[in-house]
Write a structure and sequence with these properties.
Belongs to the transthyretin family. 5-hydroxyisourate hydrolase subfamily. The structure is a single chain. The protein is mainly beta. It has one domain: Transthyretin/hydroxyisourate hydrolase domain (Immunoglobulin-like). Helices cover about 5% and strands about 45% of the residues. The strands form two sheets. Strands 1, 2, 5, 8, 9 and 10 form a six-stranded mixed beta sheet that branches. It has a four-stranded antiparallel beta sheet with strand order 4-3-6-7. A hairpin with a 4-residue loop joins β3 and β4.
Length: about 110
């Protein structure tokens, strides 16, 4: 089974992957669909089911915990990214580029 949603978190200050970040996939109603933890390469390869219905979904990253383990102060205790799943799309890769005081995202492949 291939997950409909995957993610990859890169720590732009360290210039490498961000392992050990708790990630949650939620529906528009706020209910948790799936969760995981980034691996040594900063990835969660199986975040959710093989297929999601069209609609709005949310991926949340527990960034405060990640930086706290490094004893690094951060402005963002969590990062939340909302995105739209459309009919007929096979895969959504939702990456996060992260630092203690900024983040960015894009639609990955």
């Amino acid at each position: 089974m291939t997950s409909h949603v995957t993610t990859h978190v890169l720590d732009t200050v360290r210039g490498g992957p961000a392992p050990g970040i708790r990630v949650t996939l939620s529906g528009a109603d706020g209910g948790t669909i799936a969760s995981g933890v980034t691996d040594d390469d900063g990835r969660v390869a199986q975040l959710g089911p093989e297929r999601l219905e069209p609609g709005v979904y949310r991926v949340s990253f527990a960034t405060g915990e990640y930086f706290g383990r490094q004893d690094v102060r951060t402005f963002y205790p969590s990062v939340t990214i909302d995105f739209v799943v459309e009919e007929g799309e096979d895969h959504y890769h939702v990456p996060c580029l992260l630092s203690p005081f900024a983040y960015s995202t894009y639609r990955g492949s």
